[in-house]
Amino acid sequence: MDDYKFMRAAIEAAKKADFAVERTVVGAVVVNELGEILSIAYNTAKKDGDPTAHAEMNAIRRASEKIGSKNLPGCTLYTTVEPCLMCFGAAYSAKIPRIVYGLDLEDLAEAGHRDWKIKAEALNQQIGNPIEIEGGVLKEECKSLLVNRED
What we know:
7 helices
């Protein structure tokens, strides 16, 4: 898989979010084992009034709808930030075997986004490490999407 290509797609997705509305601007892409993009999404939680409308959740929902299954084995979830507990849990429930992200929780905290506390690796260890996790892909490009927040 071309991790850089698909992370760039996630970055482009994030740029479509409403920077003035969303607290954290994130993009996510689900790619199947053939390298085909199944879904592209960005955060719409504030816009939709839906706390579950994170980019990763939106991408997982759309990919599942596209293939007609709640399971996404063989897929990779690309996201511009390390997934939160909810998004990691959704990836695990969808049987996604691989997650690739750009920024980690420390990067988010430096920009004033301190909501997420539990690292994806720690969550993965708790469930026996079934998911391959790779962080730091196109980190600087992902960092350019952050808006410093104090709210």
